[in-house]
Amino acid sequence: MEGAGGRPALGPFFTCRCFYTDNIFLEDFRLHVRSTEPQLESILRSKGCKTEEQFRKVQAKIDEEVQRRKLLHQKSLERRSIISACYKPLNPAVYVLQESFLAPEFHEIVAYCRSEDADFEGLLDRIHSLPAERVYSIPVFTEQFCGQLIRELENFEQSEMPKGRPNTMNNYGVLLNELGFDETFITPLREDYLQPITSLLYPDYGGCRLDSHKAFVVKYAVNQDRDLCFHYDNAEVTLNVSLGKDFGEGNLCFGDMRQCSAQNLFSGGRRWVGDTTRVVFQIPTDERECVEIEHRVSYGLLHRGQHCHGALPISSGERWNLIIWMRSSPVRNELCPMCNKKPELMEATGFGDGFTSELSEVWQEQQEKVTVCTLS
Question: What is the pTM of this model?
Answer without folding.
Answer: 0.85
